[in-house]
What we know:
Layout: H1 12-28, H2 37-54, H3 63-87, H4 93-107, H5 118-134, H6 147-154
Amino acid sequence: MIKGIALQTLRNAEFLQFLKQLAAIFTSHDPALLKVTDPFDAFIAAKASVDLLFNEDQASAITDELVALDAQRDDLINGMICIVQGHTYHFEQPMRKHALTLQTNIASYGSGIARENYLSETAILDKLNADWETKPELLPLWPCNWASGKHNWQRPIPPLMPNT
């Protein structure tokens, strides 16, 4: 039988869950019948204030900006993959062969690169970029080398918390 619980040892989520379950137990046994209405009301008020403290908005002020940048980067890599795939049907054999080489290189990092989490996608794109810049057989097919768009995956994440 549990005789007590050390509340200070509970983590935030555990503490909130404990309060929620305690409130449910009190509510299931009529507080008025037990003549504990005043302490119960005080407990519910205190629980509400604790819930407000722990359930503050978790979103960053720059979440929308990060989502937009990530979508832009996803479009960039998906566009690159589509262009490479399109060139695998090119009428000139050297271009087709080169596109197949690039397609094999991209495939070595798995499918659905744009669906990876931010950090995994960044690592994959950095590796692809390094491959395409250092291996002569992987020099891109197109003259622009997507250089104008590469900054989207090489740009660091802005700080999430302002310096205070």
